[in-house]
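tool_call: predict_structure(chain=1)
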Amino acid sequence: MNIPKLLSEAAAHLSAGRPADADAVLRRILKKQPKHLDALNLAGVAAYELKQFERARTLLTRVVEREPSRAGAQLNLGAVHNAAADYTAAERHYRAALRADPNNATALNNLGKNYLDQNKLDAAAETLGAAVAAAPDYWIARHNLGTVQQRLGDVDDAIATFRAVLALQPNADTLSELVASLRRTHRFDEEYACAQQLLALPDAGSAALNAWETLFDACDWDAIARSREHMLALLEAPSTRAAHRTGGLILLHSLVDVEPARAFACHRAWAESLPAAKARRRESSPNPKLRIGYLSPDFRDHSVGLFIRNVIAAHDPARTEIYCYSNSAVRDQLTAQIAAHAYRFVDTTALSDDELSRAIVDDGIDVLIDLAGHTRDSRLAVLNRRLAPVQVTYLGYPDTTGLDTVDFRISDPWTDSPAGTQYSEALLEMPESFLCFGAFEDVARVTRTPAAETGVVTFGSFNNLRKLNPQTIAAWSAVLNALPASRFVIKSRRAGEPVTRRHLLAEFARHGIAPERIELLAPTVSRDEHLAAYNRIDIVLDTFPYHGTTTTCEALWMGVPVVTLAGHTHAQRVSYSILHNAGLDDLVTWNESDYCARAVSLGADLAALDALRTAIPAKIRGSILCDPQRFTRQFEALLADARAHATGTRHLAAAAG
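tool_result:
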C-alpha cells in the first residue's frame, strides 16, 4: 500500500469537494495503520465535511492528544467544536494552534470568528485585525472583520472593509454584507446598485435574500415578481442559513397570496436550521411574584418601545418582577422610561448566547416574552434552549417563531382566524385587544378635516414602504380616479429616494394618476413633527395585505379615520382589531371593492369626515388601547394562567377586567 499516494489522493478529493470519496480512501489507510496521524487528521476533516461531527471529534482528538503542537489538527478540531456551538472548546483548540504557530492567520481568523459568534465584539475586532495584519490578502479574515465593524456600529469602516474584500475576491456573502451595511446609511443608490449586482450573481445562494429587502424599500415590484419564487424556495430550503432567513421572513407578509401553510413552512425551516441547543429549563420559582422577562432589541424610540413602555410601567410591583433584556446599543429617553420601571434592566449587546441564557436562567424568570420575532437584532434563537417554564412571543412580529420551545403567542379575538396564520405556538387570547399604547405625545391636532379648509381631500399612508404592493397602489388609484380633485401623501423612510420615487410614481401612472397628485415625504426629525403631519391628512388608507399597527394608532390618536381591508392572517387583521376596539367598525371592510367604495364615500362627504374627526379622539382615548392599567391587569392574569397551566392546555383566554 502506497500510503503517501493514497494520502495525496484523499487530499485531492477533499479539495474538490468530494469528502465521501476521501473518506473511503482514508478508511483503507486506517484499516492498515490505525494510528497514522496524517490519515487521522484528514479523516477528521472528511467526517466534518460529511457532518459526522462526533466521529470527526473522535478522530481529531486522537491526533492532538499524541501531537499537541500540530496546528492544523488543532484548527480542525476547533472547527468541529464550533459547528456544535461549543465555543469554549473551540477557543481552547484555536489557542493551542496559536501556541504552536503565533502568526498563523487561519488560527487568528478562526479565533476571531469564534469571538464574533459569541458576541465578544471587541476581542473579535482585535484578533481579526491581527489576522489581516499577518496575511493582508486573506479575504475571509477581512470579511469577518467587516462583519464585526458592522455589528459595532462602525458602518463606514465596515463598508470600506467589504469593498476591499470584493477587490480581493468577489463573492456573494461579502456583497450581501455590503448591502446590509449600506442599508444603515443614507446611501440608498449605492445599496440598490449593490443589491442588483447580488441578485445577478448565479451562485448567490441564500445571500440573495439580503437584496430582497432593498427591492421592497425601492418599491421595485417588477424585480420582486421576477424573484418571488426563487426567494420563497430559499426560505423553504433546509440549507439556507438562519442569519439569511430573517430579513426574508418578514417580507412574506407583504406578498399577496402566500398561503399560510407555505409561510409556516418557511418559519419552521428557520427553526430547523438552528444548531442543536441543550435545554436549560428550570422549574417555576417559589417566589410568589410572577417574574416576567421581556427580551427585545427595541426598548427605545421604536414601535415596540412605544407600545410596551406603558405596559411595563403599569405592571403591579406587588404581584410581578419585571426583567428587561435589551439587545440594542441605543439608549434614549424612552429606554430610560422603561428601565426606570423594570426590576432589572440588562444590556445584552455584549453577551454571547450562552451568557444571555445563563443570565435569564439565573434570574429565575417564570415567563420569558420575546418581543422581536424575526426582526433585526433579535435574540430569538436563545428561546430554543428552553430558558423559562413558559416562553411566549408577542407584539413585535406578526407571525410564528417556528420554535417548538415557544409555548404561546399572545393574540385577541379579532386578529387571528381559524383559516389564518399557522403557528407552532398555542394562542393566548386577551379578552379585548392584544395591543395597548397608552398615549402618544400630546401634539396639537386640527379639529376639522383639512379638506374643509382646502377643498381638496387628501388621502395618506405613513406605513413602511415594504407594506406596499401593486395591488394596494391599484386600489388607491381607483379611489383617486373616483375623486379627481383628491391627492395622496405617502410618508416613509425611503419615500424621498429617487429610485423609490421613480417606481412609485410609475405604478400610479399605470392607473392614470398624474405625479403631481402624489406627494412623497421623507421621515421627519422628531415624533412631534411626525404626528403633526397627520394634520394634513383627511383619510388614511391602510396597506394590505400587511396592515399598519403603530401608524393606525397614530392616525386615530390624531383624529384621522383609517379605512382598512381585513383578511385572514394576523398581519391582515391588526387594524381590524384596533378599529373594533376603538368602536370604529364602520371603517373595516372585507373585500377590495368595499374598501375602495368606503374610501370614496368618506372622501365625498366632508360633513361625515368632520363628524369623525370630532368623534375619533374620544373613542380611541376611551378604549382599552389607551388604558394601560386595565390592559395590564388582563395581561398579568393571562400570564399567571399560562404559568399555572404550563404543562396543560394549549389555548388560554383571560377574563375581561
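agent: The radius of gyration is 27 Å. Proceeding to next step.
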